[in-house]
Amino acid sequence: MLLIITGQRPMTEARNTVHNTDIVIIGGGIAGLWLLNRLCNTGYNAVLLESKALGSDQTVASQGMIHGGIKYTLGGALTGASEAIADMPDHWRRCLAGEGDVNLSGARILSDHFYLWSSASVTSRFTTFVASKATRGRVDPVSRDARPPLLDHPRFKGNLYKLVDMVLDVPSVVKALAGNYRHRIYLIDWQHTTLHRNTNGVISLESHGSHESLLLNGRSFIFSAGQGNEELLNVVGATSPQMQLRPLQQVMVWHRNPHTFYGHCLGTDTTPRLTISSHPMADGAQVWYLGGSLAEKGASQTAQEVIKAAKVELAELMPWVDLSQARWATLPVQRAEPRQRNFARPDKAFATWVEGCDNLIAAWPTKLTLSPNLATEVLGLLDEKGIGPSGEQAPVINLPAPPLAETPWQEAFGNTDEDA
Ligand SMILES: Cc1cc2nc3c(=O)[nH]c(=O)nc-3n(C[C@H](O)[C@H](O)[C@H](O)COP(=O)(O)OP(=O)(O)OC[C@H]3O[C@@H](n4cnc5c(N)ncnc54)[C@H](O)[C@@H]3O)c2cc1C
Questions:
Q1: End-to-end CA distance of the chain
Q2: Which of 52, 65, 95, 109 sits in a 20 to 30 Å window from 168, CA-based?
């Protein structure tokens, strides 16, 4: 539970350590971890506080697609915001090569491309879209003899295109980002921690251990806690920015079919009808992780209903694939975003100074892909207020380190006995 005490901070007898730091980041998903790396690389002394495990909630539940936004232009013209996302795959590639503003050289690329394919019924709209200027030559048609093994079947119908965007093994991204600044990342227990906002709107944090209490001051606090931002903002008494949640129910298919696949199947909606990503399991099997419209509609269905719908989709789109030995599970999960008019999908990263608080930024990347963009936005906000790196050493805080989050498929299938 989070607490806020406004006005005069109460004196506690046990408080004996005061830490001053440039930046305190709360929330260790992709947004917080990327921010920590970018800020520290820029010379800030920053610390990150996580309440569960690094990458929890959305980050390790994502499909890991680092895309230039083409699927978001399916419904219309290229906007300014989708121009911002278009630069992101190259940005990530530089970081993965160890040559970017954040070092991701320890992270693993699952695929350096993914596919877009149309079911036969929407072929003509799809062909028109791919030929349009919105795709700007980043989508290549795949000839019959170059089809991926999964779709290389006489019964495959529709058109197939290849996007040069990539898919990452997200747990390895989390591990790499956390590993770069391990000594700046701490586990926070809100049962024993209090956020304060003083009469000037300055936020600070006080944590009470059994032997020691600590007070943490930051020239800026950043809330990057995904859906946890709402509660954090509430406790500091902020009424904006507001958040919206987009519920999904993803489907996970554990199987030993040898073919990995990463791609979107386009249906009649602007959201892909089905998105498939493939994730390796320690036992040599793989999990196909299914999203898109299936998961959006699935949010209001039972697990059994959405699994049934997934079986129907796969049987219709790739009837030659034998999934009779597969195991099925679902993941209800919510995308957390800054609130938009008409519940629209934001297509750029969001960060803002929080009104009524002097030193607080709230941030949502809105997509994994846009984390580099979010960090640039935050650096701009700090610069606006003249908050540059202080040159002071980062504090060493007497708190434990958080673990790395398990993936949903490890949780669902990781400990099952195949012969059970
Ligand atoms: C099913 C799914 C698939 C997706 N696929 C893609 C994709 O392929 N490509 C893409 O670009 N985007 C994708 N996204 C979106 C992307 O995953 C999210 O935009 C991104 O992960 C959000 O990161 P975040 O760090 O803001 O939040 P989160 O990943 O939700 O992390 C929040 C962190 O804050 C911690 N926290 C919460 N409350 C507190 C608190 N009070 N104190 C301390 N810590 C706290 C949590 O434990 C967690 O570690 C997908 C999202 C979903 C749900």
A1: 40
A2: 52
Q: Which residues of 175-197 are buried (b: 16+ CB within 10 A; e: fewer)?
A: bbbbebbeebbbbbebeebbbbb
Ramachandran angles phi, psi of 315, nearest 5° = -65, -35
Q: Which fold has domain 4-413?
A: FAD/NAD(P)-binding domain (3.50.50)
**Domain spans, the chain:** 4-413
- Distance, in Å, from the CA atom of 145 to the CA atom of 130, rounded to the nearest integer, reads 20
Give yes or no for residue 365 CB within 6 A of ligand 1.
yes
Q: Give the residue from 267, 293, 266, 292 showing the smallest Cα distance to 277.
A: 292
**The model scores a pTM over 0.90:** yes
Please give the Cα distance from 85 to 370 (Å, whole number).
Answer: 7
| Residue 275 Cβ contacting ligand 1 at under 6 Å | no
pLDDT tens per residue across span 63-103: 999 988 776 555 544 455 567 788 899 999 999 999 999 99
**Contact (Cβ atoms closer than 8 angstroms) between residue 183 and residue 396:** yes
- Å from CA of 360 to ligand 1 middle: 20
Which residues does 102 contact at the CB level (< 8 Å), separation at least 6? Answer: 34, 37, 38, 41, 95, 177, 180, 372, 375
Q: Are 67 and 142 in contact (CB under 8 A)?
A: no
SS3 362: strand
- The 108-111 sheet, strands edge to edge: 65-66, 166-169, 108-111
CA angle in degrees (0–180, nearest 5) for 81-381-175 = 75
Span 216-250, pLDDT tens digits: 999 999 999 999 999 999 999 999 999 999 999 99
* Closest protein CA for atom 50 of ligand 1: 62
Cβ-proximal residues to 212 (8 Å cutoff; 6+ apart), any chain: 14, 16, 17, 398
Q: Whose alpha carbon is nearest atom 3 of ligand 1?
A: 62
Decide whether any atom of ligand 1 lies within 6 Å of the 313 Cβ.
no
Label residue 147 exposed, middle or buried (CB < 10 Å: 0-12, 13-18, 19+).
middle
pLDDT in tens, 338-381: 999 988 888 889 999 999 999 999 999 999 999 999 999 999 99
Say if ligand 1 is within 6 A of residue 29 CB: yes
